[in-house]
Fold this sequence. Notes:
Layout: E1 13-17, H1 21-24, H2 26-37, E2 41-45, E3 58-60, H3 67-80, H4 86-92, E4 93-94, H5 96-103, H6 108-115, H7 119-131, E5 135-139, H8 141-144, H9 149-163, E6 173-175, H10 182-187, E7 194-195, E8 199-200, H11 204-214, H12 226-234, E9 240-244, H13 248-251, H14 255-264, E10 267-272, E11 284-287, E12 296-299, E13 304-308, H15 321-330, H16 345-355, H17 364-367, E14 372-373, E15 397-398, E16 417-422, H18 438-443, E17 448-451, H19 453-458, E18 466-470, E19 475-482, E20 490-494, E21 522-528
Parallel strand pairs: 1-2, 1-5, 2-3, 4-15, 5-6, 9-10, 10-11, 16-20, 17-19
Antiparallel strand pairs: 7-8, 12-13, 13-14, 16-21, 17-20, 18-19, 18-21
Helix pairs in contact: 3-6, 3-7, 3-9, 12-14
Amino acid sequence: xxxxxxxxxxxxxxxxxxxxxxxxxxxxxxxxxxxxxxxxxxxxxxxxxxxxxxxxxxxxxxxxxxxxxxxxxxxxxxxxxxxxxxxxxxxxxxxxxxxxxxxxxxxxxxxxxxxxxxxxxxxxxxxxxxxxxxxxxxxxxxxxxxxxxxxxxxxxxxxxxxxxxxxxxxxxxxxxxxxxxxxxxxxxxxxxxxxxxxxxxxxxxxxxxxxxxxxxxxxxxxxxxxxxxxxxxxxxxxxxxxxxxxxxxxxxxxxxxxxxxxxxxxxxxxxxxxxxxxxxxxxxxxxxxxxxxxxxxxxxxxxxxxxxxxxxxxxxxxxxxxxxxxxxxxxxxxxxxxxxxxxxxxxxxxxxxxxxxxxxxxxxxxxxxxxxxxxxxxxxxxxxxxxxxxxxxxxxxxxxxxxxxxxxxxxxxxxxxxxxxxxxxxxxxxxxxxxxxxxxxxxxxxxxxxxxxxxxxxxxxxxxxxxxxxxxxxxxxxxxxxxxxxxxxxxxxxxxxxxxxxxxxxxxxxxxxxxxxxxxxxxxxxxxxxx
Length: 531
């Protein structure tokens, strides 16, 4: 997030796109609803009429995979009506004219044809967002998990630049992270192309710094992303894998392909707190401790680094993740065990601070009094609640011309419906934890294929019937829930339930830049089960 969660209270308007905020980020959802009750206006853009639509000033139901057209269309109207922030554009941005030429092609009439959103609603949304200062833009995986995910994010940034809603309280472009420490994992290098602090592996100076600190030679070539790893394993190019805290058999697209890839490995290690579907395939399972059993830090969606304090001793023979990694490393041939001697995770944080400028001023001692938001370059720095105040890291904010890119798969005669996936409030991710909670299982005990009454009637399906949903990659059987939440032509499933695994169906096609798979759009057919 460029801004802080507390900033939501200061926004005059919100544009929420590709985020089921109240169910997937319930604390932020509470803040959002509170701001709306106090008078802030909310524009919600989502293919499904999610719970948040009840609080929206304006709900835009656009077709899955048409986010760029929608965002460009709003920008077109803002320019047409002269509602842009000309001072901000002239003083703090570049590339405006080239971008404007592209946006001029996204007339309201053309955008209606692409997205399905009525022209009057496009005008209303553009006026609300452009005339409210500050206005906050929020998005989540409904924006990123597309073959156009990288361009979708750029389109969001363009809209904020156009209206000058960056670098001020209550504004910003605010991606809501999908897991509790995914921001922290990325910050410290759990990506295929960077060292900690987003320092590129191809940068000789950065690489040299880490080689000196760690006493090893490091590759200057980016590695593989998750989907690419499984493709390589399937082809025999990757022969061993070490998976920590990720149930990829259920969470990744084209699950059958993922399972085949894991079974093709010579050696698979899974480090987990429960015996997940992925851990069941492992040659070795290393029992890890849960959050309540260890010390450490989490970095949340607003870039806030917070202390994690141990509440109970580790259960059984489990250990903290950092302890397991160190113990494995010490047993590797050619490794100096001294390099892996840490007495406490606070010592690891000290190393992070030495090598990672954005974490340079963060220590356990400073975190005793509360969290700190990076960048926090030194011990006297108070942290950074709002990014891009006065200037951007690169100097000027860059307008990026982006064109609408259709999904990799679109409906056809054989697969006439669009499947989009997500989560529900009661369960989380692959259900590895939440499905072990009796109360949550009682509330939501099984998967449902949610579909529009029109599509159900066309197929002779009634509410509660069992149906088979099929894509080019697999098939799943589950009960149907008939609901106006879904537009005609769109069906929705979660990926919480191993017995009806939605990711058997989803498309592993990748965004060419960010390498994120298209989990949010795939073509399917739904038929009533005869039995």
